[in-house]
Amino acid sequence: MSGSLTREEVQAYETQVRHLLGRLAQTYGPVTLDRIWNDELPQSGQVGDIRFWFHGTGGTARMGTVSISWDWQEDQRTLELDPWKVRQTLQSFRAPDVPGAEE
User: Fold this and answer.
1) Average pLDDT over the chain, rounded to whole?
2) Whole-angstrom distance, CA of residue 29 vs CA of residue 90
């Protein structure tokens, strides 16, 4: 599946990324590119059930079978919406062993 993202896909993806960043912020404070690039945050680590690592202009996190990967745009507040990355993230939330996953 390729092409434009639906509004629902964008909203679901943004919700998941913001939830993840909120959980990391509870431990490290605000998660921003400036703080990552200035070594104010670890390049990788684990917070509870979240394993994460930062790279380039974003990061990746895994929670069991769920994988969330994101990049920020230049303004550091807006997420870069790559259709493939968004759909891979959303697909990982539908895996059979994810509690509450849809069939």
Assistant:
1) 85
2) 26
